[in-house]
Design goal:
This protein has helices spanning 3-6, 30-43, 55-58, 65-82, 99-108, 113-117, 120-126, 135-149, 163-179, 181-186, 235-244, 263-276, 280-287, 292-318, 321-350; strands at 17-22, 48-53, 90-93, 155-157, 198-200. The chain is mainly α. The structure holds tryptophan.
């Protein structure tokens, strides 16, 4: 990951900084691990990184309080077990840094109704009964913009489905920079107070698909648990799910283009490649012509070898919730130090009176 290559004009003049977050809703799965966590871990080598458990986003839909508490610790344990280093990076849960909510209010007054009305994720999540959706769900993308911009983050690794939210984040940053340009300049911040943040999309296995349907993303909300490998699954569960994964009757092709119209085969080869750190072609060099039974056995072995150290580490961490809480609290203190400086400047820029 080369920061300099990713840098665009909108972020020029800003210190390169990565921010990303995941909702503590359900248990994390292989798609979260290969699509997001492995990249977050990699980016620590080249960037200053801030990783957040976005618990305030999790209450935009109905939730059970005890489940939420458990899930915040579980997601934190998954970040840690995957290799997020809480000394090198900042790891915390959103609700402990009040500045996210404070900046959201200012951004609520910058963002336009028309912009939010275009958000496709809101439409999907609200469903038919839109009148009954929470205002928090509607405002979700504004809180997300505040998450990112309170740290003036320049890069946000996310999935394809978050692209529109990142565009909104840029729109909010740009409108704030424009609307308050005189106050921003007068206070010596130059032309831009907020950077125009870039999404970082792609990566080794950015899209892991359902084990039951190669046309659907692996998802925590799929009713069938056989559609996904959870990061809490034990070796037996992993083996069973892979053996039952949907395939087609053909043998594996020898060339990557032979996977084109075969979404399930493509997905399993992609998972194998990502776990192994190889390309799909390299996997086909080894398994081209093989039956799925042979390939699946190899995939079971590889999956268990790669995932069991992570699940074991998660279990070890979760046995001591006080230690997880201590890590989150320490991360929140460090996050707050950055966020509070931004909010203080924002208050000056918009013209609020505050303690000196
Ligand atoms: N909306 C993101 C998702 O569902 C989660 C999220 C909240 C996030 N705030 C963020 C991601 C800030 C990146 C940056 O995946």
């Amino acid at each position: 990951m080369q920061g300099s290559k990713l840098m665009t004009n909108g972020a020029a003049g800003f210190q390169s900084r990565v921010f990303s977050g995941m909702q503590p809703t359900h248990t994390l799965h292989l798609g979260n691990y290969l699509g997001a966590l492995t990249r977050w871990v990699e980016m620590q080598a080249t960037h200053e990184c801030i990783y957040c458990v976005v618990d305030m986003h999790a209450i935009t839909i109905q939730h059970d309080p005890a489940d939420l508490t458990r899930s915040i610790r579980e997601v934190t344990a998954a970040y840690l077990a995957a290799g997020v280093d809480p000394k090198r990076s900042i790891l915390f849960n959103q609700s402990q840094v009040a500045e996210h909510a404070e900046l959201t209010w200012v951004f609520n007054c910058v963002a336009r109704l028309g912009w939010l009305n275009r958000m496709t994720q809101f439409k999907e999540k609200a469903g038919k009964d839109r009148e009954n959706a929470s205002i928090g769900l509607y405002d979700y993308p504004v809180l997300m913009a505040a998450d990112i911009l309170v740290y003036k983050a320049t890069h946000v690794p996310v999935g394809e489905d978050q692209k529109q939210h990142l565009e909104l984040t840029r729109d909010i940053a740009q409108k704030f920079n424009n609307d308050y340009s005189a106050a921003i300049a007068a206070r010596g911040f130059g032309e831009q107070f907020f950077p125009l943040t870039e999404p970082v999309i792609g990566g080794p296995a950015a899209r892991v698909m359902s084990l039951r349907d190669g046309g659907k993303k692996m998802s925590k909300s799929d009713p069938s648990d056989y559609s996904r490998i959870n990061l809490t699954d034990d070796a037996d569960a992993i083996a069973q799910k892979i053996r039952r994964a949907k395939t087609d009757p053909e043998a594996l092709p020898s060339e990557e283009k032979g996977l084109d119209a075969r979404p399930e085969a493509d997905n399993l080869v992609g998972i194998f490649a990502a776990l192994k750190g190889a390309t799909k072609q390299q996997v086909l060099d080894e398994f081209g012509g093989a039956q799925f039974s042979t390939f699946k056995s190899a995939l079971v072995d590889l999956s268990i070898a790669k995932l069991s150290p992570i699940t074991a580490e998660m279990r070890r961490l979760l046995a001591d919730p006080a230690e997880i809480d201590r890590i989150l609290c320490d991360g929140a203190d460090r996050a707050r130090a950055i966020a509070s400086a931004t909010v203080r400047d924002v208050k000056d820029i918009v013209g609020f009176v505050q303690k000196r």
